[in-house]
Records
---
Amino acid sequence: MMKDIMEYCLDYAQILGASYVDVRGEHYYNEFISVVNAGVDKSFTVRKNGVGVRALVDGAWGFSSLNHPTKESVKTTVENAVSQAKMISRSIKEPVTLAPVKVYKDKVATPRKLDVEDVAFDDKIKNTLEWEQGFKVSDEVKETMLNYTAIKFDRTFMSSEGADIEFNNSVLWLEMKTSATRGGKRGAFALYHGGSGGYDFLTEGDPSELTMDVGNKAVSLIDAEYAPSMKDTTLVFDPYYQAILTHEITGHPSEADRVLGREAASAGSAWWAGKIGEHIGSEYLNIYDDPTLPGTCGYFPYDDEGVKAKTKVLAKEGILIDHMHSRETASIFNVEPNAGMRAMTFEYVPLIRMSNTFIGGGDWKPEEIIEDTKKGVYVSTRKDNSIDDMRYNWTISAQEGWMIEDGELTTHLKDVTVNGIAPKLFTSIDAVGNDLSIKPLIGCGKGMQMLYTGNGGPTMRGVADIVGG
Amino acid sequence: MRNMIDKVLSKGERLGMDDIEVYCAKNLTTKIRIGSNAVTSAFTIVDEGIGVRVIKDGGLGFAAVSLTSEDELDKVLDDAVTAAKARKLGFSYEFPSLEKSTEVLGTYDSKLVSLPEEDKVGLANRMLESSIAFDPRVVDNAGDVTFIEYETVIANASGQQVSDRGTKLSAALTATAKADGVTGEDAGRRQCRSLNGFNPEAVGREAAESAVERLKARKLEAGTYDLIVDPPTVTEMFYWLLRYANPAYADTYYPTLKNKVGTKILNETVTIYDDPTYPGGYDSASIDDEGVKASRTTIFENGIFKNMIYDSVSAARKCVNGTGNALRTGLWFVINFSLFPGKNYNYEPYPEFSNMVMKLGDWSRDEIIEDTKKGVISQCFHYSRVSQHIRGDFTSILGRWKLYTVENGEVTGTTVKCRLNDNIFRMFQGVDAVGNNPLVDFGVTPTVRVKDANITAF
């Protein structure tokens, strides 16, 4: 039924004058369970289905979406998309052109042993309650929160060029937060665990062990000290911290719409605009965006323009190579489209977004990097971040860290706030570990849409400032 | 919409719910985008659906579904009942009584609702052309204009029903000016509830004029400055401070003001209200997202912490009266949240602020500037965060847009971006001048001065 409606949209938009049209139809399911202090605090399900129609008419875009479409109701949706594009076309200065791509017909379902909807909601609540018990490693653990989220979607992409791609996926994650107190002192710790697959993604491991680790971390941070202010300090970042660092200062400025200045009023722009082919960092800096990694939050086989997913090399040995592109921006930059377009759901127009963005690994063992550091700070796991709109100046706080003295971890630190300048950090990188890993990063916002990505990197050494409290 | 409500209520009654509440939201959102000096695209989202809460045997459940079929209505009720079985509240709770209320003045604009799509594009074009025409040094513009129409209906098993409707408009334009190898970028912005509140030419001109000014921007030396914050940016400071007055955050990771009601926390110059009844307020509404009649709550009075805000569940949990502060958007970095600017049916209510309103002082903006020896005026905080929740360490980018230096009582020029590294409590303790110049935009605030803010250069 949905495909009939989508085909109708394609045909009708072309009759109305669209030179190109694509339609995304989707059945969307989201479930959420929040267990706070051993009791269910929230639990809900959300179901949606609908279509989003994007039409290119006389070189301009129009887009319209609708819940629960019928052949009758979707007629207006198509008319809206086409008429908007026609209106816009009267004022555009440069008509949109789309870089050519190979057209695919394909069906892809993320492998899973246990579909999210095949497990009773009751059972998932019971599991979440059980996993949450892991936090309670001691009486000092006071506040606990375990949030379980799953998003499952059946998405079909069809275009007037003949594309017909079905993608069935689910993405799941656990958000673990806890705090512990002793006397007047407090420690807190939070961690995400997530990826794509079935419910078995969670049950094949033991999430109770993860919550136990988080509880232990919170307790250990009670006695940790606050970091002093330290200017131009040698820092060693762990892969969890690298996830947010690479997301914010390598991923976002790689979005070609930002590079072009088109997001300047909202998401922001990019300090490295116009620097393709130039040195932006040391020879140890390699940046990738890769949606082809199965099991990650940023996995997809085709983007939301039907472009086959591929590994994007964004920077190689310190030289800026490429950006993330839509077919439109690829045409502007005269490069091949590289599958950079994603939409949160059918309701929203696709935008250039990260998939799995990370800094490439090197050949140092993580412990070798620490041993090789005379004086510095080991920075571990993200907390909060504040980044300027060009992704040049960044402040990202970490939940914990350690002083490094003569190659050894010494004083345990909490709430380590790091402030840096992106090119200064990039050029200072002199050691990259062999422990590259991709972490889930939930809650990346752009253009009204919240998305989940994978981000990460290896243990890495560079220079930035510590801002003391 | 009303048909769906009746069906859900009668099915709920047949299934033996102790109580049932249906929240319906219908949104029409249109966004016109500007990029590379041209209006480039438009999109429309039509979104309609229901969120159902049920109370059954002391449990509270919630589920949501978009505009839907009869089968899916059954499913949403089943899901809500399953959720209710799992979540036993452990305290006495019933849905709020629904009391009819009067639409807040200036929150619904029939002209905006009937505005043809072509005219929406036309407004975006006028904003853009005004910027381009201002000065030949303006070489690029990017931005958008977003139009929102919404209608909500809340009904319960007792036959009570209330509704609200509203319109919103938000516009932002960033202009880029270039001359002699120097680039200046700045913006014009406006958030309002009606077409009358939006002057596209003024926003375009503001963006262009500021961008041209930025061509002469100087670097700011790191140090301590009196920070003059113009509206609506003051609301950004409120946003982070008031997390500590929201039980959803205070009970988890922002506990500093827990059990501090009655304590002096801020400078006595500071009085802050949550006021959804403010005419034309960007987040004004006649009811909250549980249907509770809107009313004003004093949060801080002369620096003294007076009240937390509550929705009905958080109030029942604490055995206090609710304050009518239910909102259905999720909680930022606590519960998965929505950036959708209309009304969300797919979230349970959480306590959240509506319009943050500051009591006016008696300083004119000019007097504040004249009285400042070494300061900066900021009209934009970008990407603010509390980086240490207990202490309230606060950081923000100043000068993404509009940052001026003040020396010996005079505005002496624009400055490039820098970073504010301070503490949100210290900043409000340092507010020594409050203006008499309210702006109704995001919140309703005047100009304020924060003594001795710590600013670091890029």
Note: The mean pLDDT of chain A is 96.
---
Amino acid sequence: MSGITPDISDFATKENLDYYDDLTFGKWLKNIGITIKSCLTGLAITGKVILTKKAVTIEYPEVREELPSNSRSRLFNDVDNCIACLQCAAACPVDCIYITATRRDKEAPKLKTDDGTPIKLDLKQYTIDTALCCYCGLCTVVCPTECLTHTTDYEFSQYTVGEMKYDYLEEDIRAWKHRIVK
Amino acid sequence: MIEINGKDIGDLTTLNYEKMKSDLLTLNMGPQHPATHGVLRVEIKTDSEIIAEATPYIGYLHRCFEKHAEKIDYRGVIPFVDRMDYLGAMGMEWGYALTVEKMLGTEVPRRAQYIRTIVGELQRIASHLLFYGVYAIDLGAFSPFLYAFDEREKVLRLFEELSGARLLYNYIWIGGVWNDITDDQLRRITKFVDNLEEEVKTYHKLVGENKIFIERTANVAVISEEMAYQYGATGPILRASGVDWDLRKKRPYGIYEELDFDVPLGKGEKGQVGDCWDRYHVRVQEINESIKILRQCLDGIEEGSIMGKVPKVLKVPEGEIYLRTECPRGELGYHLVSDGGKTPYRLKIKSSCFTHVSMLPELAPGQMIADFVATIGSIDIVLGEVDR
């Protein structure tokens, strides 16, 4: 648009306002008739839906929807199977996975994951900032031992952002394995 | 007698109205306004109910995706392009995947092509159903919104089972798709499209043929063929203005060449060609065309792998490419420049909604405010795509 302020009278008498100028009494009556008819058509459709269709909504806190099995919700890492390969952290587009690991003692008893991969590094920290996470699922795809998974648990809101950071080495979070991972 | 700051300005009955200065009233519509479909702010100058000037202000949802893409590897960009047009995310992914595949020279397996077409067309249906619902809400009808969302929910549920997410899928990957589609899901889609075909007829009867709806949309915000060309309009808006241009027909990608479908055009049935009603009607007809495409895909889907041969570490050869696809809201273009590294050197995204927003200043003058709401609704913008 040009920067010039338009003359007000240009718009007040704009032609499109004279739309009803050619409206005769007959046309007016006809319009009312068509309007009532089309409104009744609409009411018939809504009435039919009321009588035939069942309610599609659920009453949330009482009835909880079960998400499909590969639904991408809260992340869970089974730290006993994690070999600290850092592939998940590298694949993450928003860099929300923080891993610290140290080399395992040679004298220490040899550990293996469930699928037989030897564990050569001791996991010291495995934290995911779920407030930063974009739930894209790229980290779960690259995981070689399939210990990092998306669960179908969707109720994990917190009051502060800090509480959304989960350290998966903590005892209470390890217990999720039996509670939310299926 | 009225006193302001101790000064006598006369009596209410003796106020000289003729000497009162009249001026345009500046009004801010948005950024938090239900009719602007997101965070769009439109500064309107009005003379009573009539708009003299409208200036859209964008940028409230700018998230630097183009710059982000330069920092992350090619696979990691997909969750970002999802978040542009979050109501048509499959189209966004498809365009990006095609762009990178063309640079890599990857062959996509036939089954993956079919699955992509199926999800792409389902996404178009979901997006147009959402348009149908919210456009009716913009104009004051509530029930159509509920019916459209009921149908849309079925599509989203299917996408959730396929990819794991309802809106931001990360499903179409470079070289193919993430998960395979099962026979049970294909049967459900068949059932869904059979049901939808009947529903769309009812929906059109409920809204499109309603006299009040016609009065509100016909002859409102007419975009002529010339104007559509001048502004670079694409998608349903261009087709509503009577221009036969659909990339799926004119520059086919994927398996669209083999599919038989029509391109619905605006004919000006209730008013002039290119008015709000035409834009509504083109979208409703496009749902039917998508159903036609889906039926052919469901019949022709082939067995096979769903992932082409793509190296584990993606390095795109040096060069640049511009590729465009037909998304629910219009043409989406990706301009990818690669320097041979693991990340894009530059990724410029051409969004259709951005060009459509730029039409508002020309469409608005002379309209009523209520008609302006109908105009914004009819161009069906998603601010995530405008700002990127």
Note: The radius of gyration of chain B is 24 Å.
---
Amino acid sequence: MLIRLAGGHVVDPANGRDGVGDIWIRDSRIIEAPHGETPDEVFDVSGKIVMAGAIDIHSHIAGGNVNTARLLLPENHRAHVARPAETPLSTAGWSTFETGCRYAAMGFTTVIEPAVPTHTALHSHLELADIPIVDKGILTVVGEDDFLLNLLREGGNRTAIADYLASALAQTKGLGIKSINPGGSVAFADNARTYDLDDTVPFYGVTSRQITEALQQGVMDIGIAHPLHLHTNNLGIGGNVDTALRTLQAANGKPLHLAHLQFYAYGKEGKRGFSSAAAQLAAAVNTTPNVTIDVGSVMFRQTVTISCDVIRQFASVGTAKPRKSVIFDGEVNGAGVVPYLYKAESFYNAIQWAAGLELFLLITNPAQVFFTTDHPNGAPYTTYPDLFALIMSRDLRNKWLADIPKEAAELTTLASIAREYTFSEIATMTRVAPAKLLGLKDRGHLTPGALADVAVYDDDPADRARAFRHAHLVFKDGDLVVRDGQITHYRTGRALTARPAYDSNIDRRLSRYYDEVYGLSRDLFKVPEHAIGVDHAFEEVACQG
Amino acid sequence: MTAYVDGTAVPLEAAAAEAARLLDGARLPLVAGLQTDVAGARAAILLAEKLHGAYDHAASDALLRDVGVLRQAGRMVTTANDVRIRADLVLLVGPRLTVLWPELAERLALAAPPRLSPDKAARKIFWLGGEPAAAAAIGATHIGVGADQLPLAVAGLRAAVAGRKSRLGGALAKSLAELAENLKAAHFGAAVWSAESLDELTIEALSGLVLDLNQKTRFTNLAFGPAQNGVGVLQTSGWMTGFPIRTGFGRGYPEHDIWRFDANRLVDTGEADAALWISAYGAATPNWRRKVPFIALAAPGTTFSYPPKVQIEVGAPGQDHDAIEWARDVASFTATSATTASEAPRVDAVIGLISEHLKGN
């Protein structure tokens, strides 16, 4: 199949392209314009924006905690959007099928589920397999498990920790390593209610900082592309910018990804002791090039927070709306599912909303800041189109600013920021940089040889959100899956995995440990290659070497 | 021969074609039983959608009692492994727990101190509303309460923990007051129960009790569900449609209603005019009273109170074929390998065959 996308405005910053031109697709790949061949299909995309498919690096879309949220909140997901009648479960409100359809319709072709505990990875992969069209990947959560904490207590043998991490990736079919308030789940089990960077984990005598450093080094040692993905301490608390700044320092000049930074961008100014410190934080990020961040923007609407930061989630139970939460302990990781309603008229929520936008606009390098709402924690991913529109238009921001409490607006710098993202910066932030961060060499750009994941949008300055919500065309692996914002058909996506080599001695040690401690085979916690029941369920991503 | 139409052995293909004919001709086809693995549940739910039918599970009463309270009140929960390595106090609540889960005491290693206990002291084990002999067998202090008194007893316990008075008196009140002190002194306690042997009121009182205890110390619930992948089917339904079992597609999109889509009610009122009964794990049969024409995908040798129109013998997940199932042991899905692999057809394969024969395919 030879396809020509003719005369579009090609925005491909990886190749320095930002102008009118053609894109050619043969089967699943982008190719050079061929000589003397007639395309099987030509799409006239003149006046449209042509980009690579977008990549979401942090969106809680699958697994036990997400499913608990579904079961907890039947009232939140009545089926509401009709999908093509021919596709299975096309009308289900908050289902895996809906997730694939809506992401694809926005031009996203790869989505990463960022919080999979080592003991429930099969559940996550089963759900991911039922998310059609897009490719997926998981980040494996470590840092609370007794085995690892014992390694650290015994002095943190660097080789053993690296082997442990590589083995955890193999066991869970993960793409990267995540840690969440490192040590916090263990501290909560020991009845701690707050937990900071330099607090010691009960029993084990190591601090959150030490766990972070060991994991950061371990991830570098196994040679996977994605640096340690860290959800640091003290999320959501007034004055926690101090924690974020200390975490940036704690990275020690080494690669680190700091997740949903908006939730750490709070100062203590004003009479309520809650203000945006995003400007200060953005300035620090600008001078810490070894660290990447994603924003975790807040948008005003009903949502549910889903997080393995159990200490934080337990503290939020009192502000749940509706007033019901699930708090999960668990042997390798806690978690909490707490519904929440973000309101424009809430002083605190308005600060949060503004702080997210400030981070987008004040971090100067679009390859250092990633586009997320920490779905669904700051807002569902379905609000992405509105968020794109906001960062692309100061006028639109000013309209929204008029609707939030004046005293909140005054405790942020948002009104003073003139910057408007260009399509090229959007493409860097949502295509080029995520592909690089995750080590996905053939994605995020339109270089000949790249995977033909392509999104075509209307260029409509009057309604950017509509254009981003309903892409004009989307190709996945060269297959047209969206036309005029509508899904044409399903296809099966793949789960991207990293499989660094390691000394299998750690597997024997772990097997003995599981036999002794749990009286169960460690094999029970593995995701077998054949478990998903479809061919090519997994795709291996090369390591850095 | 493993497939029958009107009691006569036929090739599988012919049985599938007859099954499709029955389902195609129905106004509201029902998929019920649903005792199958994840692949079987996926196929069954997709079939129900295609038919604009409804689906329910044989263990729905217990599963939905649990979910019903969860989505009203929320909950604190954990896994058996967490209780095993961490809990210094275990409070079992309700009857028949070691019948419902015979390996319970072994799985929780109740006889040994928790691995992560700082002082290696023996666990404190209490059983409220259990059987005296069963409690003795696992080394639990038995606190006798009749099933009808259990909601009151748990509410009384919650009051005692909160330092409030309750109407309970006598020996029970004294035992509960002592128990309350023990619960408050626990470092990391766990209430162990199953919705199979508790009613909603007790579950809700327990959820509240555990939340209250967390004001001062740590406490959580270990709630285990029915065996044979009932929880797995509920979870599968959750991600596929957003809803648990007892969901229907009559209006072209999934709607969940525990009354409307109760399989027995749908059959007994005549709303469902054809059914697909699935019981792959063993000889389980439907409880409906009206003789709706039905197709049975059932374990070999299952006999029904009235004959199914089509009967297809299927293999048992994890026995005849590899399967993904919910495992109580790990409180998540696990991949199980066939113990005695056979050629017996899988539920998902048979449903696939039936789907191929449906009109419009």
Note: Residues 65-223 of chain B form a domain with the Dimethylsulfoxide Reductase; domain 2 fold (CATH 3.40.228.10).
---
Amino acid sequence: MIASKDVWAGLMFIAFAALFAVAGAKLRLGSAGVMGPGYFPMVLAGALALLGLGILGRAVAVHIVAGGARKLPLLESARVRIDPRPLLVLLVALVVFALLVGRAGLVLTTLLVAVIGSFAGTGVRWPQMLMLAAFLSALTYVIFVAALAMPLPVWPRGW
Amino acid sequence: MDLWSNLALGLSVAASPENFVFCLLGCLLGTLVGVLPGIGPVTTVAMLLPLTFSFDPVSGLIMLAGIYYGAQYGGSTTAILVNMPGEASSVVTAIDGHRLAQQGRAGAALGIAAIGSFIAGCVATVLIALAAPALGAVALQFGPAEYFSLMVCGLVAAVVLAHGSVMKALAMVVLGLLLGLVGTDVNSGVRRFTLGYPQLAEGIDFVALSMGIYGIAEIARNLEGRDETRAVRTRIGSIWPTRRDLVFCLPAIFRGTVLGSILGVLPGGGALLAAFAAYTVEKKIARPPRHFGEGDLRGVAAPESANNAGAQTSFVPMLTLGLPSNPTMAMMIGALMIHGITPGPSVIRDKPEMFWGLIASMWVGNLMLVVLNLPLVGIWVKLLQVPYRFLFPSILVFCCIGAFAVNGREFDVYVLAVMTVVGYLCAKLDCEPAPLILGFVLSPIMEENFRRAMLISRGDPSVLISEPLSLAFLLAALALLFVLVLPAVRVKREQALQE
């Protein structure tokens, strides 16, 4: 398992390095003496790519020494168990918050986000969950608006 | 004496009614959240970070420090009572602590942990007051080359402490450094890696980053195929340790304090290494040794003292060098920066009331923890029974508001979402997030010093090794790496077969 995760980890780091290299391709490099804005990032992206390759290479080597003996295909051994549901539900809740908070205000948005977020877990119990959401909504009002007086939109716009 | 006048200045700041309340509030909130199962100290600090932004820097920092000790103490409570250490540094506490709880002596364990932490906190406060100004004065002499090499050394040391693969931890540092570069380049004014979003001109928001990685990504991981509901049915027993217990543990407390104080200062050290080392030492010298692991009070006293001492002395490199030794210190730096203060050697000179106030508040905070927690332990036990299905929506809501409130813009909530995905991926692939956070915080300072060093030497990188101090830092970093990478690079067959 350790080795197979490394295959993906190596690939992930290489991908990040490539992302930064591409996004920073237009930045002026300058010289070592007078560095442009692109110099340090490119050094880092290079280092990240090398590290990613190292991690990947080591994982493949481990695979050849150990897994290969058992005739396991590399990518099958590289499978990582992921249950995407909680993550996806949480992401949806975040996006809903970002979309709504400016228009619907803090109180209603937190209520809704707490309800949506609850579905990231298993076995939602409606009454309890609604009470929790109402409690959280009230709590955030007390903390952020009443106590800390942060300049946040509280109620739906136009009310 | 200078020390006393400084401490007096600090106490006058820390004991002002306003700051006293902030310290109290921080300790209370920190414990309250830290005690909740499944929420470790780092998550606690990340979650509560935005609460401190609306106050002035000194009060905000004092409150944040209070949150940190409170969270740590709360974490130990969880470790002892339900054997669920919230973070690595209380793993050792759980070994003997939970055994004691099963034997009905949870009270004694909690009490000795609080008292040990308090003693350690007192000693560490004095040590910080002595060591920090000296270290700061030395650091003021550092040129850019020394500074750069020191940062390299600190980051490598942090990597060493992350468990798991060294290469992955290094890659996480570099990824953190790259993420830290997003935004406007100070030297040229050019925007880098902003992907056309003007909101990224000032960089990725630190709160959104840390909340994504430590808050929401962690929920996603916790919710995957976990069946919760652990009832806490332990009798707490008397909280106040008997005189015999105290005498029995006192040497262990002092040994833990000394070890913790020293290890805490080292970059990458902090509370984690301190707790492990203290436990190991006690186990070695304990007579009779056989009780260790089966509920020995010293097995709680020593690591708890050490981890508190270490947690406190880890403020020294953070405040004097701007070098965070653990993710919490990285968050402190993030908080300081949001208040417009760049941590580094000049902080002591320019902001003495903040520096000494913070140090004095550590002592005040430790006192509060003892005074508060011993009587309140009944409430904390109740909190332990809060099921996770109530907790995670709360974390979610608080992270949303926190990320949104810092700059009052929705964009940061999207950043939070992206960072959640990054944090989740890394966690799934066994890449520890701590090095990433440290790299992220250090990146601008590192680049600045690297550029300056190269500018002075006209592009000759040998300046990094021709300055003796700089060379020493780099050699130390190299030595650390060498020790660690050697066995890891060799592909060991048996290790691979372990699976």
Note: Helices of chain A lie at 2-23, 39-67, 74-77, 84-118, 126-147.
